[in-house]
């Protein structure tokens, strides 16, 4: 565990974009953050593409962890960017699924960000309390009468699907088929890709303690 003060600054060489990321923290991530400026000419366009997706926000610690390998960071940026902006699944369902993944995988940063986005998208706060508190629905478990708790029937279906994909991976036929009552085949693929992608995100964040969030309490629903 490394304890030191660090200052992170990114200035893109594109004159149209001049973004600065500056922070001071006692960091304990399991590897140091990558350089905040491109290490060579080949990495310059990658840094610029990631900065462009984040704009007007600065780069985040996740970016600076991935940028140890700019090619990996570039692929990640493209994939997650498509998941975020090029899918047709309603934001309420997408952010609910991501928030549930964060709870199951104990990804504090993922919960704090995406639970707030779920509320902004229209998920009821009582529903988010259910997302946070309800018991895991494993493969083979009977589908009960959980409807309510601030969630619609569609949201419950997504929650169950997310649970089984995240813990155990295999999904009951009935749980998968339930999605087709309100999602097209394309949207089922998009939702599945979203759940898979954000399981990847949460596992990366937690394993390396990116952003130094491990062990910190997740925000309460009333704080979102």
Key terms:
mainly alpha; 224 residues; 52% helix; single chain; AhpD-like
| Whole-angstrom Rg | 19 Å
Oligomer: single chain
CATH superfamily of the largest domain: AhpD-like
Report the major sheet. Answer: none
InterPro entries: AhpD-like, CMD-like
GO molecular function: peroxiredoxin activity
Pfam family, one: CMD
Protein name: Carboxymuconolactone decarboxylase-like domain-containing protein
Can you give a write-up of this model?
The radius of gyration is 19 Å and the shape is globular. Residues 1-26 have low confidence and may be disordered. It contains 9 helices and no strands. With 224 residues, the chain is mainly alpha-helical. It has helices at 44-54, 61-66, 70-85, 91-105, 108-121, 125-133, 153-166, 173-179, 185-208. The protein folds into 2 domains: 1-86, no CATH class; 91-223, AhpD-like. Helix 4 packs parallel to helix 9.
Topology at a glance:
Elements: H1 44-54, H2 61-66, H3 70-85, H4 91-105, H5 108-121, H6 125-133, H7 153-166, H8 173-179, H9 185-208
Helix pairs in contact: 1-3, 3-9, 4-5, 4-7, 4-9, 7-8
């Amino acid at each position: 565990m490394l304890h030191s003060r660090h200052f992170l600054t990114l200035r893109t060489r594109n004159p149209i974009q001049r973004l600065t990321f500056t922070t001071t923290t006692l960091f304990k991530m399991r590897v140091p953050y990558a350089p905040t400026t491109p290490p060579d000419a080949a990495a310059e366009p990658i840094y610029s593409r990631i900065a462009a997706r984040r704009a007007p926000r600065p780069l985040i610690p996740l970016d600076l962890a991935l940028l140890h390998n700019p090619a990996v960071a570039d692929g990640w940026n493209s994939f997650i960017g498509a998941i975020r902006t090029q899918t047709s699944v309603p934001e309420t369902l997408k952010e609910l699924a991501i928030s549930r993944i964060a709870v199951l995988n104990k990804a504090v940063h993922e919960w704090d960000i995406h639970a707030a986005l779920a509320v902004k998208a229209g998920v009821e706060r009582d529903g988010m309390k259910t997302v946070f508190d309800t018991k895991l629905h494993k493969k083979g478990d009977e589908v009960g009468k959980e409807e309510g708790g601030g969630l619609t029937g569609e949201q419950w279906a997504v929650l169950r699907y997310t649970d089984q994909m995240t813990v155990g991976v295999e999904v009951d036929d009935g749980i998968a088929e339930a999605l087709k009552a309100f999602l097209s085949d394309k949207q089922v693929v998009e939702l599945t890709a979203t759940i898979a992608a954000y399981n990847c995100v949460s596992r990366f964040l937690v394993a390396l303690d990116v952003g130094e969030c491990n062990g910190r309490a997740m925000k309460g629903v009333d704080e979102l």
